Amino acid sequence: MAIKTPIRLGTRGSPLARIQTDMVKDQLMKTFDDLREPGAIEVVVISTTGDQVADRPLADIGGKGLFCKEIEMALFDGRIDAGVHSMKDMPTWLPDGLVIASMLERADPRDALICRKADSIHGLPEGAVVGTASLRRQAQVLARRPDLKVINFRGSVGTRLEKLDRGEVDATLLARAGLDRLGLPDVPASVLSPEEMLPAVGQGVIGIECRESDDALIELFKAIDHGPSSQSVHAERAMLDVLDGSCHTPIGAYAVIRDDQLHLRGLVARADGSAFFEIERFGPPNDAVVLGRDAGQELRDRGGADLLS
Predict the structure, then answer these.
(1) pLDDT one-digit tens code per residue, 272-289
(2) Does the N-terminal peptide bond of residue 57 adopt cis geometry, omega within 30 degrees of 0?
(3) The pTM is what?
(4) Chain centre to alpha carbon of residue 307
(5) Which pLDDT does position 1 carry in this prediction?
(6) With 60 as the cut, is the pLDDT of residue 72 above it?
(7) Which domains does the chain have, with CATH numbers?
(8) Cβ atoms 130, 171 nearer than 8 A
(9) Active-site residue (options: 89, 111, 170, 294)
(10) Are 206 and 20 in contact (CB under 8 A)?
(11) Phi and psi at residue 31, in whole multiples of 5°?
(12) Which pLDDT belongs to residue 67?
């Protein structure tokens, strides 16, 4: 394949985002000899609104898409050739003209409870303060422990861990994949099963976004796509699409392929945990989008529509 270089990868500036972009770069260099040459791949750091405004809930400033908007603007004006994202940060719908060209193999999708006082949600002291910016996590915590207090808690992984150590909260929740990629083995993390805390759509997956018209680049990135991870996330995002979910609605989903079957679990809830609807689907991986849309429709039909309005 004739590859036009340099390939410019756009990324947020957080330590985790930089590590994830280096993972994409490494995969490309392993796959294409031409990209091992010095300067063949450039990393372009882009400041996003989601990173700049860290003192307010995402829902109040425009949603998780604010981690992507400036990167997508750089794609449209040609400053970069591809954007590297955590798929859990991607909004339900992409701007016209952009596509997800590839996804790397999914890392551990589970959430982790970070706490020095307990190793489970049920083990937290009565009235303990849990910090999270995620309504999905908040709803699932309060559904199990309505006595707990949940407060808005944003910032990079390092910032949140510092706040925890200062005693601003008793516990917080982080994606296990992020902790692993940052190499933080000493963090007091208790991994929560999907049955206890259903992950966010796309959690643990790195996605690469391109211009839809860049056929050669899309073909290049497809060479590093991990098919089962892509199929799983497509099922999760298809469910999200039908739910028309926003950052104001707690929604979780996790799909995994085992023994040639895709197993999808999904939920929609009220932020205070007082209402909770869950769904499961099984089927062929090639029917991932159909399964996801079917699951989303049943969640709406069973009462989720009231929570989404």
Answers:
(1) 999 989 999 999 999 999
(2) no
(3) 0.91
(4) 22
(5) 57
(6) yes
(7) 1-104+204-225 (3.40.190.10), 111-192 (3.40.190.10), 227-309 (3.30.160.40)
(8) yes
(9) 89
(10) yes
(11) -90, -35
(12) 73
